[in-house]
## 1
Amino acid sequence: MKKFVNEPSNFVHEIMEGLVLANPDKLKYVPDYNIIYRADMPRDDKVSIIQGSGSGHEPAHIMLVGQGMLDAACPGNVFAAPPMEYCYECTKLMNSKKGVLHLINNYQGDRMVWDMAHEMAEADGIKVGVVIIDDDVAVQDSTHTVGRRGVAGNFFVIKACAAAAEQGASLEELVALGNRVNSVVRTMGVALTSCTPPAKGEPIFDIADDEIEMGIGIHGEPGRRRAKLQAADAIVDEVFQAVASDLPFKRGDQVSLMINGMGGTPISELYLLYRKAALNCKNSGLEVVRSYVGNYCTSLEMAGFSLTLIRLDDNLKRLLAAPAEIPIRVF
Amino acid sequence: MKKFVNEPSNFVHEIMEGLVLANPDKLKYVPDYNIIYRADMPRDDKVSIIQGSGSGHEPAHIMLVGQGMLDAACPGNVFAAPPMEYCYECTKLMNSKKGVLHLINNYQGDRMVWDMAHEMAEADGIKVGVVIIDDDVAVQDSTHTVGRRGVAGNFFVIKACAAAAEQGASLEELVALGNRVNSVVRTMGVALTSCTPPAKGEPIFDIADDEIEMGIGIHGEPGRRRAKLQAADAIVDEVFQAVASDLPFKRGDQVSLMINGMGGTPISELYLLYRKAALNCKNSGLEVVRSYVGNYCTSLEMAGFSLTLIRLDDNLKRLLAAPAEIPIRVF
């Protein structure tokens, strides 16, 4: 296992310590429940927005905690849902008179713990709203999922809801908004390589030197098919077709286009992929009004990418362009 | 070769096309000379700042072109200096009454082409200033270098000079500032894996599954020693000691600390490395006033990192905190 790691059981804990050391004024950390939260939250005049899933998808979600994005995150171990008590304690910690919004990727483990935390928090008198994210078009059901998986499209649900929350939206409005965003966002991913969780010490699946997995899940779940490695443009064509035909996106639609890296793919290759995806948008009559190229939802050091399209309206364009400040910044 | 690539000879060109497609209002591209430049530059009331080195180090330098950073970049092929005419044409294109600043990493190939472009531009009546960057403490001379190599510390020279240029500094002031920044910044890197330039199709060096290269160059040049893979904290300790003892940094210094990814290392591991480096700063009496964690100067998909320290004064703190807007953004 070639990784920068100490004792594998401390992997997640040490990442979170590093994140808080790098942002001492803005973030706080509760080690007992793996909670990273904004130092200036909760506030009774703003709905709190929280998320917690398995680790290994960084920057999702601990590095998306900040003004105009998440208020708190409580990850589990690598590729494992957080324990229920993390979700419950995180909800209590972020309790606001306006309520707490749970954003949940559609995996059985995540849904179970958040459902229980939701019930317990409501029994405590906390107002809780829920949005389930399931943007992955690759497969219908999957290894850890009934229905579609939640992947990089998650970013848009967070950004839109968080921007609206900063502007004073109610919990009910945010649930409606989150569901609406989820209904117009579609994603599919591809893997060139597997990845190795530190505690496991070996790759989560095998893939030959000349193969790619089309429709990969973010925990290595199988996709649509195992294919021979092709030229980048041909790979983009297949992924674009799968994503664009699903909603379907139509000539004249205004969209955002995201090329998300899976963790081990250099940004140079992501822009090379973006090039073909942007040309495909143009040829399909889709107008890209805002682009995203980088690592948003990863699988440790996996080499791969996902392509996300989201159909925009004026309100959504405004929300996506709202200011935000998160720990991972270039400057 | 497992990469997202089409025809290898089009690799750099297609990345640049993708970058401009993603930033149609802000960037322009001159394919004949591989120049990416700010659509709103040059201006006669601001010194233009340009850089061009081999490709494969993205975001350096094409993705650092934007307000408050570079005005233009003209990369060569992967790990190859740009042809002299790219440098000359880039200088002419960015000609300003206040002059053009060349920021050059200390490699023989880069210095030669930029020296020639400098002479030719001056013969045309263009005012040119030069700053050479050589922040890598690993080795004295190297495969492509007489003297020290220029690596991730480059970022700080760009940021400080660009901020001062936006505030109206003269070419002479910027040369003095750039040299001063370079004199207080120190870096050393480590590689877990090699990397594969698309046109070469195979790794640029071999490294065993249980080995790391301490002091790696950004083109795979040998470092100080080949070591057995150790715990992350032990690796950070060795790199930190090499960097901190070189200036040397002293108890009471205010610094910025950068953990730069080499391209294939996930951001989770970078924050785990940052944790130990930040603790070492604290134990050494160095006050970290601004932190940087991410990919700044990479080697394609290499797994590895570098650690940079820079000693700050009030002026430098102000310049590093100045606003900037570059193509690679999270939102």
## 2
Amino acid sequence: MSYNSFGNLFRFTTWGESHGPALGAVVDGCPPGLALSEADLQPWLDKRRPGTSRFTTQRQEPDAVRILSGVYEGRTTGTPISLMIENVDQRSKDYSEVARAYRPGHADYAYDAKYGLRDPRGGGRSSARETAARVAAGGVARLVIPEVKIRAYLVEIGGIAIDRSRFDDAEIDNNPFFCPDAGTVPLWEAALDAARKSGSSLGAIVECVADGVPAGWGAPLYAKLDSQLAAACMSINAVKGVEIGDGFGVARLRGEDNADAMRPGNDGPLFLANHAGGIVGGISTGQPVVVRMALKPTSSILTPVQTITRDGEATEIVTKGRHDPCVGIRAAPVAEAMMALVLADAKLMQRGQTGR
Amino acid sequence: MSYNSFGNLFRFTTWGESHGPALGAVVDGCPPGLALSEADLQPWLDKRRPGTSRFTTQRQEPDAVRILSGVYEGRTTGTPISLMIENVDQRSKDYSEVARAYRPGHADYAYDAKYGLRDPRGGGRSSARETAARVAAGGVARLVIPEVKIRAYLVEIGGIAIDRSRFDDAEIDNNPFFCPDAGTVPLWEAALDAARKSGSSLGAIVECVADGVPAGWGAPLYAKLDSQLAAACMSINAVKGVEIGDGFGVARLRGEDNADAMRPGNDGPLFLANHAGGIVGGISTGQPVVVRMALKPTSSILTPVQTITRDGEATEIVTKGRHDPCVGIRAAPVAEAMMALVLADAKLMQRGQTGR
Amino acid sequence: MSYNSFGNLFRFTTWGESHGPALGAVVDGCPPGLALSEADLQPWLDKRRPGTSRFTTQRQEPDAVRILSGVYEGRTTGTPISLMIENVDQRSKDYSEVARAYRPGHADYAYDAKYGLRDPRGGGRSSARETAARVAAGGVARLVIPEVKIRAYLVEIGGIAIDRSRFDDAEIDNNPFFCPDAGTVPLWEAALDAARKSGSSLGAIVECVADGVPAGWGAPLYAKLDSQLAAACMSINAVKGVEIGDGFGVARLRGEDNADAMRPGNDGPLFLANHAGGIVGGISTGQPVVVRMALKPTSSILTPVQTITRDGEATEIVTKGRHDPCVGIRAAPVAEAMMALVLADAKLMQRGQTGR
Amino acid sequence: MSYNSFGNLFRFTTWGESHGPALGAVVDGCPPGLALSEADLQPWLDKRRPGTSRFTTQRQEPDAVRILSGVYEGRTTGTPISLMIENVDQRSKDYSEVARAYRPGHADYAYDAKYGLRDPRGGGRSSARETAARVAAGGVARLVIPEVKIRAYLVEIGGIAIDRSRFDDAEIDNNPFFCPDAGTVPLWEAALDAARKSGSSLGAIVECVADGVPAGWGAPLYAKLDSQLAAACMSINAVKGVEIGDGFGVARLRGEDNADAMRPGNDGPLFLANHAGGIVGGISTGQPVVVRMALKPTSSILTPVQTITRDGEATEIVTKGRHDPCVGIRAAPVAEAMMALVLADAKLMQRGQTGR
């Protein structure tokens, strides 16, 4: 976890800016012999792709991924897999305003403070456009863990939570919000339309679940599975909170309520609850791994906000670019990718250390 | 972040089990020339030390830290600093029950599933006793960032939150709960006494704030400051959720409420709010860095819980060891240590890459 | 140093196969604000480019490098720099023979043993073509260490050593062998012509010197400057030996001959000799850093060699591809690149840890 | 490979100074379930121990190793193994001379230049005493690779090479020089006695061979097995050159002589030669892995040498401490340890990535 690389044995490095010619990822350490072609990756990119509904940015990007190395005759060779996605719709608009003044809530000021300069075009490296590269890399990671099924969905937008009693996996891909509860869809639709019209934006909560993770993944103490997931999720643009299992809810539980009791099962223990979200002591227990993350409302809004210029002068700014009224929506496929990337690495590390 | 090491340029590695002869940390990459003696580290260890009130485990450990290398004539030399803490009160009790059956909520089953064997004495490596080594290492980290002031305190125990209007820094060290609100202290005292008497335990929320962090620390995209803090905090025993700034609260904010507006200040911008918790785009902004974490109630309780044995037989278990009724309390000094360790690394990385 | 990444603070990752569509490098951790364009990198690639004389492979590759990220308005931004070189002359020849039988001295068998499969086209990932990516990355590294001047040259081909008394820096770029001794050039020319005609190949020794390295670079004990250089040089295709300063010659020196005495100088000590090659205790001394490496004769030769097929049958093989009669020649620019990459990292690490 | 840690999946970190209270290593990533006690490590330390003959330093150190963590009931648990060796004979002599002036050939000046201060007692961190910790860690590594047999021996001292035709494995432990040729022993004895009497010292060449390494270990391109070995060996005190297989000799071979031909064997190919030293393309071939390293004569000699003081004044220095007349001798067990450490890591990485 240094700069733009993530992972230990299964490691990926991303590169690229919002308005550069392309962006990509290099996946290193992928096991050899896995069947892999662009067709295995493209569906995941299509899920994250902008411009698919009125609730996401109107930027039109085909997000076509190319595999430039690491595959021979349709199989991974164990050498680095270079993935590239060309930017197509990087509009030649005028970025002089963004270059001049800092957009509050965006990384403009922080990048300038860190590096002394920045690429203002569409947020440069700090743009969520980079997550396309993660999703491509995550597609490779999924092939490493075929025993695991990962799905992410939204459980809350603008303070409106789903009704868990109506949770239906099959609904997730039936609406533009990755919403597992059909009854909540019209409420979110209305809230987002209202936000769009008023030039505002809404926050959201994404939940991501991995079924099929065997017990034993995660390397204590500083490559704990939950620690790696927290790092992975917190690195997603706009995420401000991460929780595992009951998460912040555990603070209100008593010890006897929180311990997930066990009974004998056919294949390992049968747990009577999953407050732990599938991870204890930083190691998977064989239960579903459950992570939730909170995403802030995008700071690109039409309401003027007070700010300062690069020269330190007071000014106001209105962000007119193409943006998502709720960045949480397109974060769902990104969360799945990060989960896959963390789990693929944990699997290889576990195999490496223990032979299991 | 691999196995038992954390950090990039400023890196530490911990070792040791709850009932082994000793535990320790090796701090590598510490800048040379810093004044350092055991007396600089012992106060932090004393804050975390068990047995200081009836609200923490009754294990009696002096937690006296020894510096075995890396210091010459009272100054760090730039070579690895080996810190060792001997275990004194590792009681020779009978651990055959814990060796035979898995304690739900503890790492017993997960360690067995991962490694095929485990040290059952006091939880072995999974014991929170390991955090003593982090606190010692954190004491070294603090010397690297003298410009930063870090303080952690509890904001909630057993569902009882402090009253923020009564927040007083000076109170934090005046009570056994690191509670910044004197009015809440008796409530927590009563709740914890009741929990202790009924053989139960309570969850908690710890908040940790770093003042004085300059703008520009944190290395996007996968060594983002918030990502590193999330990994660091989630690696603390019993933590199930981490949030930065408004955290999960951002999910209910609108874009115009969440962006922290800026005005010209004397030394960098003057922010009109700190929803971001001092971090945007993974980089510090110069505002206070605010992180909060939720800790589950310890699973060592007197109520019998259903579980299985190593051989897969059904049984019940009651955990009789010495334990904290609220592990959140002693997590406060650990949270401070992890914050210091992350910030020290971020400072050196920033200096290395940019010369600033 | 894991898989396809090298370096700590200044880190690069390469990808690509000999006959894939492209190859490249991602340089991560480059300081911001450095002037950088393709024109800064192309000259180094041109030095390594194949097909420039009859003494190197006849493969025709323009090796035009493109910068895909990390640069804005001609300056590095501190974000990852993606460099790509398209393969142009990957001939659609028949590789079924190489796919079927292992070429002795090539990585064919080892890759199969490791991965269970391999890309046989031109050696796939094991081809020295990958070094084009290193040379591009090395071009970026040079910008990080403008105080350092690096030059590599050949001191021996096919057992014919240069005459050190005729050493002339200015000659190095005057002949196709990077030979600093004009008198030796015709001898090497004759030897290589003879080797080419008989379908054979010759070994070589490359020396690489860095002037201007200040005292204090290198991080003991396992990121010692000489240790990093040894790793870097040994990773170059065909290198079988690496030495620093007097290298293997020290084994025959006596203690009083080997210690480089010091006298007071204007700017640090004035050394009376440089047996140490500019590195003592793994740290630079301010003297020129001198590394030498031995390169084996390429194993692609016209003489039939006994080998086995993938199925374990006995057979013979003659390698007919386009190859260098002396791979040592084109290793000189690669050695320079690796030296630059190691030094850039050492500089940033030193600055990070010590602020110097 | 950063600072004081080495390795990827199987990683060790050393700490300690020559005259500090102790030194040690933390071995992280060791597979669980291996039988391990101090008795498994002590024999390797005894081989390296000083004071065992008149040809090594007269410092008396029992070098008794203690295991402080990571082992339960005689088996490794998969958690970090902390190894500690107390320093006993760190003589309270006067180091003011060494503190004041730089010993040429020693790391004194370089450490000062890097860190701005140094521990002058016995060389501090730069002392070869640190290699005791490597040898202890190497003892753990050997348990990870029981299929491999490693032996190191000297092949040259003071320019006197062994006669390879008299090579006898059984002789290696029969003399104080790890010399495999009984006929050479008296020659080395005489040369070393003469060097000792004249207050001088001699260089040496150590060869280290690993039998039983299966094909497929080593992770190209930057964790190549030969690259890791080169880094490991060059990190040993006084080593100035490293070569694999024929090493520098390959520079004088022709392609047809250098390729190791293969015939069908019972278990993988039967190689007709081993010019490659068991590594091609950075990956083991199943042949013996052969590495050789050159060690300089120690610079601690009785002949006065010109040098400068910390203040930059000209002076002379004579090093009077206890030292090895030929540091190459005690480097043999260290070379074995480094070989074991590199191979253990390569094995786990290979298993992690490929499952083989």
